[in-house]
Amino acid sequence: MHCEFVAVIRLDRVSKRYAEGAEALSEVSLEIENGEMVFLTGHSGAGKSTLLKLIILMERPTQGQLFVDGRNLGQARVSEIPALRRQIGVVLQNPHLLPDRSVHENVALPLLVADQPVRSVDRRVRAALDLVGLEPLAQRMPVSLSAGEQQRVSIARAVVNRPRILLADEPTGNLDAELSTEIMQQFMHLNAAEVTVVIATHDVLLIKQFPRRNVLLRNGQVERDQPATTP
Amino acid sequence: MRESLLRLLAMPLPTALSCLTIGVALALPMGLYIVLGNLDALGRSWERSIGVSVFLHLHMEDSRGQALAQRVREWPEVGSVEWRSAQESLEEFRNWSGFGDIIEGLGQNPLPAVLSVRPSEAFPSAAQMAALREALVALPEVEDARVDLEWAQRLRELVQLGRRFTVALGLLLSLGVVVVVYNAIRSSIAARRLEIVVMQLVGGSPAFVRRPFLYSGLWYGFGGGICAWLVVQSYLLWISAPVARLAQLYDSQFALSGLGWVHSVALFGIATFFGLLGAWFAVVRQVAQIGAEEDGAGF
Fold this sequence. Notes:
The complex is a heterodimer of chains A (231) and B (299). With 231 residues, chain A is an alpha/beta fold.
């Protein structure tokens, strides 16, 4: 069974204006369905990162309503933010691995903050590392890994909590074409396991290589919402 | 908690310096407090020997003086009475003053018989001593009576003043401890900024993010307490021998008392509390700031 067509992320006329006055998003309405894989594309400053920040509750909409898994995030209390974030995995351009912790310890972080039992932590970390093909490197330190391996560790960290949604902001921005393809394959693999994946990128080649739904943002508005096409 | 300790031990020099600074800041008021406690105990031990020197009329017969001593001994407020005849007083003065030849030349004894009256109360108040003196002066056989209490009262007042000074100094230096820990934790937060950002990103609650830093503050305080304890104990050990020798010169059995377990526990508790307080101030302010600047995460 593949995805059920229920909006797991829904933006209803969402605007975001920063304190400095700049409007990053303007009345954006968008629905992302459960198990879907979506590219958010557009130039720098188009509003891609702001949209992701709103979903992960790093920012609040100035106007409009944003629902994640049916929950209106505009009404979420500050004390609820950590729990809501645990339901969403995040991969960034820079993997942000803690240099003084092993690969295993880095991947275990989301489980530790969620107070998971120690026994299940080890099992789940190994499973997440296995998913990205890095289980043999569990005890290595991040500095000894290649850029691609580091990004794969950050993907393992993002999915170790088994989130239903995975957000990625320019995840291949620091990687060459070969490694980018490798990382994208990881996302495809996760999406196949019914994880909703939203990737903000301006890498046109990548989008062509992996034809999925493409939401093009320009000046904080959705300019084009192109459905997935077969390659 | 163990991890926080290991992190601090992984940077032995900065940790030791912070703990030493906290230790010195706490050792000063704690040392003063202990010294004042010893002074107070010394004053109280001397107060036990406080009495009223009662001078009888000159040339009074010894039998009258002894009878008076017997009468006064039966008063409830009197613990003991020692009678010293005029002749004994003269002998004592001759031996003590070294003016033997001059006294010989006087021809007659200028000193009266004396009663040394000690109160029944172990630690009589100034009012009790004054009342006893008044009662003794009122007796027809008595010329005059003196209470040597003033020096003890002065010492007691000085100790009280010293205690207040110590409390003020303690509060001031405790503020210093808070500042030292605040700075140490602030540096630690700055050094672990990435870790905090990642923790927040993966859903770490504010309490979870704050916890290791609060533990660090706790360890800093406890380490500072150990340093303070060592400094105070070493100092007391260092001066105990000269103090004992000085006490011997005054025929006293006085010995310095150091930090007992109550004081030691109090010192560790206070040090740990101020460490925690400093860490709390740093964490609440700094972590909230990092939370507001999560852009650093790369979004």
